[in-house]
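Quick one: examine the sequence and fold tokens given here and explain what the tokens say about the fold. Here goes:
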Amino acid sequence: MKRSIFWGLLLAVGSLPAQIKIVTPGDSKPLFVVNDVLVQDVANIQPGNIESVEVVKGEAAAKKYGPDGRNGVVVIKTKRPVQVNYRDPKMTEIWEPKPPKVTPGGNWGAPPSDAIILFDGADLTQWQSARDGGEARWQVADGAFTVTKGTGDIKTKRTFGDVQVHIEWRAPSVLEGEGQGRGNSGIFLQERYELQVLDSYESPTYPNGQAGSIYKQHVPLVNATRPPGEWQSYDIIFVAPKFGGNGRVVSPGRITVLHNGVLIQNNVEIWGNTEYIGLPRYTPHEKGAIQLQDHGNPVSYRNIWVREL
């Protein structure tokens, strides 16, 4: 194999049996990237093992590999893995791609600049009836909305895949019922995977059905529930399940949840659709809405936003 590139940086490959020779103007030295990793030298690479060679220079090289890239960057792909020298700390610096800048909210729970606002305290225009697709008929007042018993679940008009979700909720201050009958609602990701909403402050129930549980799948690590009548928050990282063409589960869903800032679900695997009776199982689906449950209790919600991941 022999390759030569002329424009101020000359690369000759294979001119010697087991050596790569780099010739550059003056005393400047290029950087080397082997199989996407910055390395100190390429002395161990045999010419016959080289799959491809590319040379990047100037502003393009500096933008991707930092200021030292201005002298040129030799990018090599090999057919087989090679042992390389990583002694220089620069060899493990990655300059591109740079993450996009996002302005965080001014305080805990405030939406960042790239958030999709699902409820800002004004109205339910982002929501619809899960039963018939009509108007969401829950009551909006004082910057929040509250379950109206018997009107059914509501869901977002938009559908989502992988998301970060912030949602605040409040169980009623008037204590009625016990266990699953006290302050019960639920947040269904993609309309089928339920994160339980429940007054679990001092109201015993089965642990895989208490506040913060992935209903009947995962018990929360701790009970971080505040007293009824106080606002609470869930911060959720949801990775949607992926399905193959034949409906086979390629990768199951996963979820992380912070309840009032406390980690309660740590990247746990979702076993399938939420089931009240029977075991969870997956059914193939595309993106889905975020659905809130009418369980007959006047649970309230506010400050709901998502970031698509």
